[in-house]
């Protein structure tokens, strides 16, 4: 498997010492019929801090606004955060699946 340094994705063990799950074992994931997406999601979430903070600000304001206008929601900030995370995840998953 090639090193994905351009994404800053760790090529060694991503979890604490002693755990056997490694990022560079996509063959093991596929052989065990496991989805690597949860691991990659954990990796990508910190890259979308701006959108996550925007969502948290909206949720904090929503607590007071919803009392006067119950139709308000944080749907758009949530969508922006999810879109950011999914964009990061999709690239890494494709690279993991397309490696020789």
Could you please describe the fold and organization of this structure?
By secondary structure, the chain is mostly helical. It has one domain. Helices cover 57% and strands 0% of the residues. It is elongated, with a radius of gyration of 18 Å.
Distance between the termini: 6 Å
C-alpha-based Rg, rounded: 18 Å
Backbone structural class: mainly alpha
* Main sheet overview: none
Count of distinct structural domains: 1
Shape: elongated
Unreliable runs: none
Mean pLDDT: 77
Strand composition percent: under 5%
Total beta strand runs? 0
Number of helices: 4
Q: Topology as H/E string?
A: HHHH
Percent helix among the residues?
55-70%
Quickly list its features.
100 residues; mainly alpha; elongated
In short:
The protein has 100 residues and is an all-alpha fold.
Secondary structure topology:
Layout: H1 26-31, H2 37-44, H3 49-68, H4 75-97
Helix pairs in contact: 2-4, 3-4
């Amino acid at each position: 498997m090639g090193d994905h340094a351009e994404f800053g994705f760790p090529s060694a063990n991503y979890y604490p010492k002693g755990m056997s799950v490694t990022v560079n074992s996509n063959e093991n994931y596929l052989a065990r019929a496991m989805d690597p997406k949860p691991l990659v999601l954990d990796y990508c979430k910190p890259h979308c801090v701006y959108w996550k903070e925007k969502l948290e600000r909206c949720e904090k304001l929503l607590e007071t606004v919803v009392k006067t206008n119950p139709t308000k929601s944080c749907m758009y900030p949530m969508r922006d955060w999810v879109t950011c995370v999914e964009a990061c995840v999709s690239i890494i998953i494709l690279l993991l699946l397309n490696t020789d």
